[in-house]
Amino acid sequence: MRMVLGIDTGGTYTDGVIIESGSEKILRKAKARTTRDDLTIGIKECIDNLQFEQFDQISLVALSTTLATNAIVEGQGCEVGVIMIGGEPLDKLPVAHYAVIGGGHDPGGLPYEPLDEERLLQALAGFAGKVAAIAISGFCSVRNPEHELRAKEIVKMQLKVPVVCAHELTTTLGFYQRTVTAALNARLLPVITEWLDVIEQALTGRGIKAPLMIVRSDGSLMTAAAAREKPVETILTGPAASTVGACTLSGQNDAVILDMGGTTTDIALITNGSPKLNPEGAVVGGWHTRVKAAEIYTYGLGGDSYIQVKSKKLAIGPERVLPLCYAACRYPHLIEELSSAKLTAEMFAPYQKTDCLMLVKNSDDQAGWSLSPEEQELISVIQDQPHSIYYIARRLESAPSYVNRTATSLIKRSLVTRIALTPTDILHVLQAYTLWSCTAAELGVSLLADQLSVHPEEFIARAVDQITGDLAVAILQSLIKMQGHSFNIKENRHNIFVQRALDTRANDYFTCNIRISAPVVAIGAPVQAWLPQVGARLNMELHIPEHAEVANAFGAAAAKLLERVEVVIKPVPYGNGFSVHLPWEYKTFATLETAVAYAAHSARERVCSHLLAAGSDNPEIRIERKDIVAACNQGDELFVETILRVIGAGEPTLV
Known about the structure:
Layout: E1 3-9, E2 13-20, E3 26-33, H1 39-49, E4 58-64, H2 67-73, E5 80-85, E6 97-101, H3 117-127, E7 133-138, H4 146-158, E8 163-165, H5 175-205, E9 212-215, E10 221-223, H6 224-229, H7 237-250, E11 255-260, E12 265-271, E13 274-275, E14 283-284, E15 287-288, E16 297-299, E17 305-310, E18 313-320, E19 322-323, H8 324-330, H9 333-338, H10 341-345, E20 356-359, H11 373-381, E21 387-388, H12 389-396, H13 400-412, E22 416-420, H14 423-429, H15 438-452, H16 456-482, H17 496-502, E23 520-523, H18 527-538, E24 542-543, H19 551-558, E25 561-571, E26 578-582, E27 585-589, H20 592-613, E28 620-631, E29 637-650
Parallel strand pairs: 1-4, 4-9, 5-6, 5-7, 7-8, 11-23, 19-22, 23-24
Antiparallel strand pairs: 1-2, 2-3, 9-10, 11-12, 12-13, 12-16, 14-15, 17-18, 20-21, 20-22, 25-26, 25-29, 26-27, 28-29
């Protein structure tokens, strides 16, 4: 029996499954806390938690990871030099070193001017010793890549560093966005390489010798070798894997997918079994790329979202914290600290009375940070174990609100994490989920109920209503955006019809009902507790499949190989014939049909070779053709262009 190991590293948990190839039956499943400073620790723990001894029978390992996304957001990676051919940057770039040189092409593939090789050599001389990779982006290089290819040859002769060309990553126009994509890809090269090396060592150490594949941002698989060359294509792989897993586990090919994890809730749409792709490319860390990615709408609401009392109202998320129930299970002394008579007596504290602080990086890891005396004192108190803010304040002879302000900067720098009340704690109080300390969860609810001046039962009712209401708003807002509308529900929350539709606690003369016509497939560990109430609010058909809590890891294991090539064929400007704009070359032909035939053959060969190299023995190839014409006077039509899309799909070969 051949088996596949699927692993997904989410913001809070790392999930793992072992499935039987062919039947896709789940044989083992496990979870571990994600270790953000070193993702491999959580992955190793997850593999060990599978309690599986026949790792030599694993035929394939598939991963979806937050590594590339986190690295971009946090500005990690190597120093990159960017060569821009034929155009200045429209905005800032994610690099410190760049140069603009002459060259570039027009949309028809004809050169504006020759490539300025002398200026290129000068730029490379300036980069020497300062950069560890080069990214090259030429104006309209997707219409003719000759200048990028020539520049790449020169870079390889002058510098011994990796070189990335924008036309190798995307076939979409948009000079600035393609430049950003190439720069980020170059920056991620050592990050992904180091991570893959460690992962492969960890797998080998457990007797797993199977090929390793990574989920792309569109939900398909790529080989580890391809990921080393194009790491930018691994951004947003978690949400992409979730759409694949939800679709397969539920049997729904046309549905809204809701993935609620510990940190966020992600919502996407699948049609004919495939996620809807964002035509403009993925946006990560504020950088707009041209990476093909599933169109995902993300909301800061999850099982570990921070529940606070602000201005006598509940606020939930978007900050992620450690649940009280989980932390107290590991550190029981927190219950005693939170039970302090002094703390309970402070009815209107200017801070959250449930909050505790835990150090997540030891003193050696703090060497690169400049810490204030107040920050150093706070860290000294929690060096060995976490404590409540009230306990820390007593030790430092300071006000709890002052301690909270000091902690905020440490939390932003990921040196300290907050422990507080969360939706997971609410579930422990309701006895819907009792894996950790119910006592700590009940204590947290009691403390915040005091701050809100309500009975704990009323606090629970308000929290449940707000959590389910926020999830309902997330679904509605996503569907509104997917259909191209700009109506913002939060900005119009005081609209009487919006109020009546979303407020289940309202008791008035009329109500409004909303109905979601598309089925909603909910996955993630918390959905069983929250989504049935959301479904009742929105009158929707809800599906929570078996194994919903590990659907992302299952999606990684069940994903397929997919390759796409898009070719544009246009009339030759100022002449006769037709130009073929392949991602790797530019050619002209006398007739449209000969141009189309050449383009289809070349693209098909490229797709097949990539899939065969990735291990697919018998890929399926589909060619789509779209002729675009413009209406003229007297009913005539003017040919504008032909777009060919060659799409190949296949199963990865199992060892």
